[in-house]
Structure prediction request, 227 residues.
Amino acid sequence: MNAALRRSLGIVSVMLTAAVAGAVLRPKGHIIEASAGLDLARDIPRNFGDWREEVEPYIQVVDPADAQLRERLYSQTLDRTYVDGKGHRIMLSISYGADQSEELQVHMPEICYPAQGFAVDDLALGTLDTRFRSLPVKRLVGTRAQRVEAVTYWIMIGDTPVANATARRLAKMRFGLNGAVPDGLVFRVSSVSDDRERAYGEQASLVRDLLDAVNDKTRNKLIGSID
Prediction:
């Protein structure tokens, strides 16, 4: 057998293996809703710790997806701006989708922000430590005209917090092996600031205070259950 034929057979073998694996791992069954019963408007407090909702915010929360896409992807969304006693403003956006099949999976901000005219840079994986668990997060900076917005976010796939595409695929694969489709949630905090490190610190403070304020059931839906 010559080298060219061996290479061709090798390529065919890889393609067949991938096709079989895809068929096996593709979710075929019911949807697992780790966040079933979640009511964002009810369960996320308007006031907690030193934070108060700004009823008429002068800084609008960016919606990185167009209205039709957002309606198709998510069954619930929540956008609020909070301000603390020192005047720090943090925008909170939570989007929940019951079906995380390939066609309906939640969107990462670094993909959607450019569609709204933002240039995105300084993407970095990191962690956000809380007293409940250390969360994997992704941070980025979006710039549009004079608006510089520092963003921190994580994604829940079922009961698993993830912050990158590989971790998301692995989490979905775990459900797929059991013939199930998980739900998903994007938790995003952001602030308009030229000092990104200070902004990230203020965002982490709001997240910690919020997780302290909500009940155990809601907290588990936002960051996963703690064993």
